[in-house]
Amino acid sequence: MELIAENRSFGGRQLRYSHRSEVLACDMIFAVYLPPQAEQGPVPVLYWLSGLTCTDENFVTKAGAQRYAAEHGIAIVAPDTSPRGEGVADDPDGAYDFGLGAGFYVNATEAPFAANYQMYDYVVSELPALVEAELPLDPKRQAISGHSMGGHGALTIALKNPGRFKSVSAFSPICSPLKCPWGEKALGGYLGDDKEAWREYDATELVARAEERLPMLVDQGEADDFLAEQLKPELLEKVGAAADYPMAIRMQPGYDHSYYFIASFIGEHIAFHAANL
Ligand SMILES: N[C@@H](CCC(=O)N[C@@H](CSC=O)C(=O)NCC(=O)O)C(=O)O
């Protein structure tokens, strides 16, 4: 991997790398924040998955997470949200909710997307192996979080990999892609018409059959324009209660879907992960 940008931040380093992804069959860019504690030895790591239209940069420049990551001695790895580059298939109409910037953290099986859109394997396997080999990260202390499409990614990846993460959190996650327009479009496009395959990437389905009980924190703004149609935290809450899965779902009055919301609570999310790492 090649270092392409570096900025000192809260005593640590905000880094940006490019690399060739074999899994995605394209060049990729990702961001890493290393707290000052990483100078002394391996530190725990939080993976952050961003939402629709984002690159690795939205979270890094807007969330204000570095202050809290430095305070708690946690590294943050923030990948891009889809494969990139010439030849990578996109939404035929250039829509923002499918294709580039909208990989949904699944392994596509449908042509032409299957050639590059393997974001689940990229986030679960290829990227962690790369950063663990090159940077002072402790693979035994991992957590995962994300926003909207990335909240769906964080919840599903944590639930599908018991024993891997110490905690999971999400801001405004798409709680059931099986039951919302964003999810129906993306899972249909990447996985085809067989909804059995979709169930493997739906947090409500995965909570219902989960064996592990992972500390889980979800924040959702009550003034979020996407809340009723796309996000539906009530579905996650209902299945969590039925499965006796302990989760904190906090409705936050007045907050919308933006990074102003994320920046307001990212400190609490990082403290939550720090307490479990
Ligand atoms: N219509 C909007 C939708 C894009 C949007 O709101 N993206 C969110 C994530 S939504 C769910 O995954 C986001 O994080 N945007 C980036 C940002 O920096 O705010 C549009 O295209 O404008």
TrEMBL record:
Its EC number is 3.1.2.12. It comes from the Bacteria. Serine hydrolase involved in the detoxification of formaldehyde. This is S-formylglutathione hydrolase. Pfam families: Esterase (PF00756). It is an enzyme of class 3 (hydrolase). The keyword Hydrolase applies. NCBIfam families: fghA_ester_D (TIGR02821). Keywords: Hydrolase, Serine esterase. Transmembrane segments: none annotated. One of its GO terms (molecular function) is S-formylglutathione hydrolase activity. It catalyses: S-formylglutathione + H2O = formate + glutathione + H(+). GO terms for biological process: formaldehyde catabolic process. The active site is at S148, D224, H257. PANTHER family: S-FORMYLGLUTATHIONE HYDROLASE, S-FORMYLGLUTATHIONE HYDROLASE YEIG. Belongs to the esterase D family. GO terms for cellular component: cytosol.
